[in-house]
Amino acid sequence: MPPFESLPYRPCVGVMVLNRDGLAFVGRRLGGPEHTDLTHEWQMPQGGIDEGENALKAARRELYEETSIKSVEKIGEIADWLAYDLPRDVVGQAWKGKYRGQTQKWFAFRFTGKDQEIEITHPGGGMHKPEFVEWKWAEVKSLPNLIIPFKRKVYERVVEEFAPLAKS
Question: What is the pTM of this model?
């Protein structure tokens, strides 16, 4: 495997979905080599950008593939790309050792549907493998404490940027 510092970041998107009460969707992850901390298993939907796909389209696709949510309207976007590094001991296990971490474009969506639309057991109409074992609506300010520690700085920035949207 090449040296850690020479590995690129995987281009991805992240999505904060806010309901009418200003709470954010979080799912408890099924696992994966990078999720070694059983205390901090909750995260917002996120995933890779396909070749030739723009970030907003990827955000909508990933949201649907992980949660079945389609009833959203875009209410925010962070101008910067936010990056995190994987812990060095799991780099070789995640994404076949091709990336040192992710660089993410974050979007905020307002959920305009009903909770019954959310389906994590057979997401995306059953066309995708589940990534979450349960979900809940959470206070935006609580999100950094729910995420695995190596992603915490990204979540702190996302909360800083999108917290005002939860109140509107």
Answer: 0.93
